[in-house]
């Protein structure tokens, strides 16, 4: 499980000798999982404190739901929601590492100013043509996810000749765009649930180790997703056990970051898998 991969965060290296946990905080009412939503400053700080106490290495703040059918959020509103949340968290927990979950460069800019240190983009720049130039200029670590289309039409774009070959090529080309301009701090996310059928999601998980050829940090977001609760015919609120099972498989197959709603079970999975593999 040990790896030499790392990313540069404001001049300091974050090593991935062992996998990290990213805890999700949504400051929008549209997120598919209600327990990750916060609507008051008190709720925000309580959730941030809980996730950090349970062992979260990074807090991922989102103000725009990517689920199909979610309400469009104006840019100004997304900036206000996320930047305010980031400032509050940094004031209470100054050492917290925060990522901003957005596909808009304006939101990313405001979030970095507010105290975020990573940008997590579900579209890898495809939904905002200015995002990649912004990231390179800002020298910010960038989480790029594989997706086709947008959240409204992505489930109509699920035909692949070879899904893993296409994902590897997608990231290879993207990484080349960044490295050609001297930007190395890229994290890749295969995008479970985005422009993929349930069977394709399981195939990507099964073959996740193929992404190691890219020599980048690998993030997986499996937490309480439909591939779990629809397969098991349960509600997302009952999908914690299924999440832990799939996160364990992801760790065996090379995941470096688990993006989750429930931090403690992910921390425990990492400890147990690390003990097993080492």
Structural notes for this entry:
This protein has helices spanning 41-54, 75-92, 105-114, 131-138, 163-179, 198-206, 226-232, 240-252, 263-277, and strands at residues 6-9, 12-15, 20-26, 58-62, 98-101, 118-121, 142-145, 186-189, 217-220, 257-260. The protein has one domain (6-277): TIM Barrel. The protein is globular and about 45 Å long. It has 278 residues and is an alpha/beta fold. Helix content is 40%, strand content 16%.
Notable traits:
278 residues; two-stranded antiparallel sheet; globular; alpha/beta; TIM Barrel; eight-stranded parallel barrel
Helix fraction?
25-40%
- Helix/strand class: alpha/beta
What is the molecular shape? globular
The average pLDDT score comes to: 94
Q: Give the biggest sheet.
A: 8 strands, parallel, barrel
Distance between the termini: 7 Å
| CATH class value | Alpha Beta
SS elements, strand count:
10
How many structural domains are formed by the residues?
Answer: 1
Order of helices and strands: EEEHEHEHEHEHEHEHHEH
The CATH architecture designation is Alpha-Beta Barrel
Number of helices: 9
Approximate strand percentage: 15-25%
Query: What is the CATH third-level topology name?
Result: TIM Barrel
Secondary-structure map:
Layout: E1 6-9, E2 12-15, E3 20-26, H1 41-54, E4 58-62, H2 75-92, E5 98-101, H3 105-114, E6 118-121, H4 131-138, E7 142-145, H5 163-179, E8 186-189, H6 198-206, E9 217-220, H7 226-232, H8 240-252, E10 257-260, H9 263-277
Parallel strand pairs: 3-4, 3-10, 4-5, 5-6, 6-7, 7-8, 8-9, 9-10
Antiparallel strand pairs: 1-2
Helix pairs in contact: 1-2, 2-3, 8-9
């Amino acid at each position: 499980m040990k790896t030499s991969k790392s990313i540069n965060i404001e001049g300091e290296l974050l090593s991935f000798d062992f996998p990290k946990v990213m805890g999700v905080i949504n400051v929008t009412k549209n997120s598919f999982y209600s327990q990750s939503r916060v609507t008051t400053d008190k709720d925000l700080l309580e959730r941030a404190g809980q996730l950090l106490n349970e062992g979260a290495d990074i807090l991922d703040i989102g103000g725009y739901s990517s689920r199909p059918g979610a309400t469009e959020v104006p840019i100004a509103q997304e900036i206000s929601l996320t930047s305010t949340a980031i400032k509050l968290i940094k004031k209470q927990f100054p050492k917290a590492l925060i990522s901003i979950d957005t596909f808009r460069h304006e939101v990313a800019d405001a979030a970095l100013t507010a105290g975020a240190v990573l940008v997590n983009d579900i579209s890898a720049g495809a939904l905002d043509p200015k995002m990649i130039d912004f990231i390179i200029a800002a020298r910010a670590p960038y989480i790029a996810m594989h997706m086709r289309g947008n959240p409204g039409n992505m489930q109509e774009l699920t035909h692949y000749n070879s899904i893993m070959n296409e994902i590897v090529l997608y990231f290879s080309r993207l990484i080349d765009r960044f490295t050609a301009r001297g930007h190395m701090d890229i994290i890749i996310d295969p995008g479970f649930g985005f422009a993929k059928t349930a069977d394709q999601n399981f195939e990507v998980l099964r073959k996740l180790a193929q992404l190691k050829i890219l020599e980048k940090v690998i993030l997986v977001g499996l937490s309480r997703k439909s591939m779990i609760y629809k397969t098991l015919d349960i509600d997302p609120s009952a999908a914690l056990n299924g999440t832990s099972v799939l996160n364990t498989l992801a760790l065996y197959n090379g995941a470096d970051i688990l993006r989750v709603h429930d931090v403690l079970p992910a921390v425990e999975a990492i400890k147990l898998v690390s003990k097993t593999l080492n």
